Amino acid sequence: MSEIFEVIQREFIYISYYFMIQLRQIAGYWIMGMVIGSLVSVFAKDAIHNAFDRIRDKKWGIWGVIPASLLGIASPLCMYGTIPIAASFSRHGMRDDWLAAFMMSSVLLNPQLVMYSTALGTTALVIRIVSSTICGIVAGIVVYIFYGKRNAAGSGGKYLFRNEPFFNFKGFEPRASHDTHPNLFLRFLFNLGRNIKATGLYFLLGVLLSALFQRYVPADKFAALFGEANEGFGVLMAATIGVPLYACGGGTIPLIREWLAMGMSMGSASAFMITGPATKITNLGALKIVLGLKRFLMYLVFVMMFSLVTGWIVNIII
Question: What is the span of the domain harbouring residue 104?
Answer without folding.
Answer: 44-177
